[in-house]
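Worked example

This section walks through a single chain of length 122. The input is the sequence exactly as stored; nothing has been trimmed or padded.
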Amino acid sequence: MASEKQIVDAFDKVASEIPGFIAASLVDMDSGMTLGSKSNRADFDLTAASAYNSELVKQKMKIMKTLNLKTTLEDIVMTLGDQIHLIKMITPATFVYLAADRASTNLAIVRTVVNKHAGALG
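Given that input, the structure is written out below as tokens.
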């Protein structure tokens, strides 16, 4: 498990490499607790978003089990009218949640940058 400093350092790099970066957090899936985060917007409630997204990931895992899928969850992408949200599994118990401005970046950039720094968060 990455230290808090390693998490902050990784998110600083992610933020500098994604145009329109809004916020990112490393989340414990079981508790919904944020293990480390970075936000560029005070009005973006990253703690609440992280907790609710842990419920989303748990539900997706239940769906996969119900469908008897023999695979692992890699990521979940949500596109809003003005934002891209990415959930990237880091370990079976943790994930990165990231939001970026859709007008400033694209999904390929977001995925590439998150994947590049994911190893530092595990």
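What to look for: The chain has one domain: 4-121.
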